[in-house]
Amino acid sequence: MGNKTALYDKHQEMGAKLVDFGGWDMPIHYGSQVDEHHKVRQEAGMFDVSHMTVVDVTGTDAKEYLRYLLANDVAKLQQKGKAMYSGMLNEDAGVIDDLIVYLMTEPGVAGEWFRVVVNCATREKDLRWMSDQTASFDDVALTEQPDLAMVAVQGPKALELAKQSVSESRATLIDQLSVFQGLESEGWFIARTGYTGEDGLEIMLPEDEVADFWQALADAGVSPCGLGARDTLRLEAGMNLYGADMDETVSPLAANMGWTIAWEPQERIFIGREALQAKKEAGISEKLVGLVMESRGVLRAHQKVVVSGVGEGEITSGTFSPTLGCAIAMARVPSATADQAEVDIRGKLVPVRVIRPSFVRNGKKVFD
Amino acid sequence: MSNIPSELKYVASHEWIRVEGDGTVTIGVTDHAQDLLGDVVFVELPEVGAEVAMGDESGVVESVKAASDIYAPLSGEVVEVNEELEDSPELVNSDPYADGWFFKLKLSDQDELNELLDAEAYNDLCESEA
């Protein structure tokens, strides 16, 4: 048996099919992954993401430490609670993990601190790496928060239904949140972030309160959703999955993460900068693209992509898109790839369109 | 526990077979198989008129999660395929033993029927795999 989140009994009660996910027994679905996917695109769904790793970064050097640790620059966080997506790179500019970092205080105040959320499957190596990097700083402390549960409530009705499920002061806070901002209310950290391409919240709260909150959300009409739907939703939204779309062997420049690298100011030193600069100057030979297949069938990870006259690539994540009704994928292909390719599906070359890796946002198709 | 109707026959690759009594059989996948597959989104079936031999790959079921081959559980000629599955592949999940059927075979060797599993033997097989 794996680790259990504080919602384990709720999942069983609600008919979840549980599978091992990075050492945790997590719901893959509660009956139908496709139905859950549609619920999130059309109404609201909730996900138990308590397996994710939360690390608080404190101390007078917290900010300078993160500016060194991450490829994106936390100095850009200029509002209390503001969140940022970043890669954490190694010296060779491979991606150790991708993460979200929140500024937990007003910017620049004494006692300024940050909260970092990293993937569960990479927890141990991340914590080791982060801890090793504190050595060059006098005053920085990392505190994991394993007793926090985390629930993502996502979908066009997520905010409205979440507000009905919380105290008045928390509902007021939800009203005040801007996109990509998280704030504390009565011991809960409520953030307007997510991994689905819909509006919604990610809420971190004490483990012993999460079962009642989950039930309140269900009573308000939010559907429980498993990690299966979470994967099809994030793929439609064109969001990377660590370990599939990038890892330590892949440069962020070949993983559609160029926008997360803060090159300015030039004097900021961050881990991987030098290697990244060298790669950029040498020219990037591969890129991460989106594939759309209009014929029947489903694109799957590791299928070969053939680009006539250019070369070959590989699908990194593929699925059937419930919203679009056809197969979609992310693939790493030669940089010279234009708008057409073929995928080797069980020995047959099937034509696909090549687009920017983003398929659906806010319930709508986002490509022509 | 999954539903395993006693009037049907089974094979280890999780297809069910209904013997129609007129020399034909109807074939589909079991409740256990559809549960393992998850939401089915495409079903690729053999052509009507095709000759298949026992154990041949005769189609593919694609779910959100994975692609899975359909094996012919018996030898014969494909006489009908379930065209409803083209527009409604989810019938495989919602009604695996009736509206979610795959194809019908006119058997070329009735003796092969003796090799099929009954419900009890198939149930034991599923439990041993669990």
UniProtKB/TrEMBL annotation, chain A:
Q: Which InterPro entries match?
A: GcvT (IPR006223), GcvT/YgfZ/DmdA (IPR028896), GcvT/YgfZ_C (IPR029043), GcvT_bac (IPR022903), GcvT_C (IPR013977), GCVT_N (IPR006222), TrmE/GcvT-like (IPR027266)
Q: Where is the signal peptide?
A: none
Q: Which GO terms describe its biological process?
A: glycine decarboxylation via glycine cleavage system; methylation
GO MF terms held by the record: aminomethyltransferase activity; methyltransferase activity; transaminase activity
The record places domain Aminomethyltransferase C-terminal at 287-360
What sequence ranges are listed for the domain GCVT N-terminal?
A: 7-264
Q: Which of this chain's residues are annotated to bind substrate?
A: 202
Is-annotated flag, keyword Metal-binding? no
Record text on subunit structure and interactions? The glycine cleavage system is composed of four proteins: P, T, L and H.
Q: What does this protein do?
A: The glycine cleavage system catalyzes the degradation of glycine.
Stated family: Belongs to the GcvT family.
What is this protein called in UniProt? Aminomethyltransferase
Q: Which gene encodes it?
A: gcvT
UniProtKB/TrEMBL annotation, chain B:
Instruction: Name the cofactor(s) required for activity, per the record.
Output: (R)-lipoate
PTM-bearing positions, type N6-lipoyllysine: 65
| InterPro entries the UniProt entry points to | Biotin_lipoyl (IPR000089), GCV_H (IPR002930), GCV_H/Fam206 (IPR033753), GCV_H_sub (IPR017453), Single_hybrid_motif (IPR011053)
For this UniProt record, the keywords arranged alphabetically read as follows: Lipoyl
Q: Which Pfam families match?
A: GCV_H
Q: Pinpoint the Lipoyl-binding domain residues.
A: 24-106
Q: Please share the entry's free-text remark on the cofactor.
A: Binds 1 lipoyl cofactor covalently.
Is the rRNA-binding keyword given for this protein? no
Gene Ontology biological process: glycine decarboxylation via glycine cleavage system; protein lipoylation
Q: Which GO terms describe its cellular component?
A: cytosol; glycine cleavage complex
| Subunit description | The glycine cleavage system is composed of four proteins: P, T, L and H.
Q: Known HAMAP family for this protein?
A: GcvH (MF_00272)
Q: What does this protein do?
A: The glycine cleavage system catalyzes the degradation of glycine. The H protein shuttles the methylamine group of glycine from the P protein to the T protein.
Which family, according to the similarity comment? Answer: Belongs to the GcvH family.
Q: What is this protein called?
A: Glycine cleavage system H protein
Q: Which organism is it from?
A: Neptuniibacter caesariensis
